[in-house]
Known about the structure:
The protein is mainly alpha-helical. It is built from 1 helix and no strands. The protein has one helix at 2-51.
Amino acid sequence: xxxxxxxxxxxxxxxxxxxxxxxxxxxxxxxxxxxxxxxxxxxxxxxxxxxxxxxxxxxxxxxxxxxx
Length: 68
């Protein structure tokens, strides 16, 4: 009976952790989709601007930039 008392919180904690992992995984997938869409839109904007008479300065990513 003593073991049952100790297992239950672990199982509950484990289920909570799994739920959090699932939630975060879903959020990461959503953010990746949004980022892909953003990159696509930015690419189209830059392409349109480069075809116009508007000159764009060179833009460098921040030094902390890490590709996915």
